[in-house]
Design goal:
- Helices cover 88% and strands 0% of the residues.
- With 60 residues, it is mainly α.
- It is elongated.
Protein backbone atom coordinates (compact mmCIF):
# COMPACT_ATOMS: atom_id res chain seq x y z
CA UNK A 1 0.00 0.00 0.00
CA UNK A 2 2.74 2.46 1.00
CA UNK A 3 4.73 1.47 -2.09
CA UNK A 4 1.72 2.30 -4.30
CA UNK A 5 1.34 5.73 -2.71
CA UNK A 6 5.07 6.41 -3.05
CA UNK A 7 4.97 5.32 -6.69
CA UNK A 8 2.00 7.57 -7.36
CA UNK A 9 3.76 10.64 -5.97
CA UNK A 10 6.94 9.80 -7.88
CA UNK A 11 4.94 9.65 -11.12
CA UNK A 12 3.16 12.91 -10.28
CA UNK A 13 6.53 14.57 -9.69
CA UNK A 14 7.84 13.35 -13.07
CA UNK A 15 4.74 14.57 -14.91
CA UNK A 16 4.81 17.98 -13.20
CA UNK A 17 8.32 18.53 -14.59
CA UNK A 18 6.88 18.10 -18.11
CA UNK A 19 4.22 20.80 -17.64
CA UNK A 20 4.63 23.97 -19.68
CA UNK A 21 3.86 26.78 -17.24
CA UNK A 22 2.71 30.18 -18.56
CA UNK A 23 4.88 33.25 -18.16
CA UNK A 24 3.81 36.05 -15.85
CA UNK A 25 2.77 38.15 -18.87
CA UNK A 26 0.66 35.32 -20.34
CA UNK A 27 -1.01 34.86 -16.97
CA UNK A 28 -1.83 38.58 -16.72
CA UNK A 29 -3.29 38.60 -20.25
CA UNK A 30 -5.40 35.52 -19.60
CA UNK A 31 -6.66 36.95 -16.32
CA UNK A 32 -7.63 40.20 -18.05
CA UNK A 33 -9.51 38.31 -20.76
CA UNK A 34 -11.42 36.30 -18.17
CA UNK A 35 -12.27 39.40 -16.11
CA UNK A 36 -13.52 41.37 -19.14
CA UNK A 37 -15.52 38.38 -20.37
CA UNK A 38 -17.17 37.99 -16.95
CA UNK A 39 -18.10 41.68 -16.87
CA UNK A 40 -19.56 41.57 -20.39
CA UNK A 41 -21.60 38.44 -19.72
CA UNK A 42 -22.83 39.92 -16.43
CA UNK A 43 -23.96 43.09 -18.19
CA UNK A 44 -25.72 41.06 -20.87
CA UNK A 45 -27.57 38.96 -18.29
CA UNK A 46 -28.46 42.11 -16.31
CA UNK A 47 -29.90 43.76 -19.43
CA UNK A 48 -31.95 40.66 -20.28
CA UNK A 49 -33.21 40.49 -16.68
CA UNK A 50 -34.10 44.18 -16.70
CA UNK A 51 -35.97 43.92 -19.99
CA UNK A 52 -37.85 40.81 -18.90
CA UNK A 53 -38.80 42.52 -15.65
CA UNK A 54 -40.20 45.51 -17.52
CA UNK A 55 -42.09 43.26 -19.91
CA UNK A 56 -43.60 41.27 -17.05
CA UNK A 57 -44.60 44.45 -15.20
CA UNK A 58 -46.42 45.66 -18.33
CA UNK A 59 -48.22 42.36 -18.74
CA UNK A 60 -49.38 42.18 -15.13
Amino acid sequence: MIANIKGFFNEVSKEMKKVSWPTREQLRESTAVVAVTCVLISLFVWLIDLSMTLIMKNIY
